[in-house]
Amino acid sequence: MSNKKEASFVKGAMILAISSIIVKIIGAVFRIPLVNIIRDDVTMGMYQTAYTYYSVFLTIATAGIPIAISKLVSESRVLGRTNEMKQAFGTAMRFCVVVGVVSMLFLFFGASWLAEIQGNVDAAPGIMTLAPAVLFMAVTAAFRGYFQGHDNMIPTAVTQMTEALSRLVIGIPVGWFLVSNGFKGKFVTAGIITGITMGAIISVLLMILFKLRKKSVDERLPQNDNKSRSRSELLSILLKIAIPVTVGSFVMQLTSMIDMFLIKNRLIDIGYTKELAEASYGIYGSYVLPIFNLIPSIIISLNVSVTPTISAAHAVKDTKKLHDTLLSALRIVVIFTLPAAVGISVISQPILSIIFPTMPDSVAIAAPVLSLLGIASFFLCASSLTSTSMQAMGKPTIPLITMAIGAVVKIVANYILIAIPGVELMGAAIGTVLCYVVITVLNMIMLSKIVGFRPKFMQTYIRPLICCAIMGVVVFFSYELCLLFVGNLISVAVSVFLGVVVYLVSMILLRGITKEDVMGLPKGEKIASLIFRNK
Question: Is the pLDDT of residue 219 over 60?
Answer without folding.
Answer: no
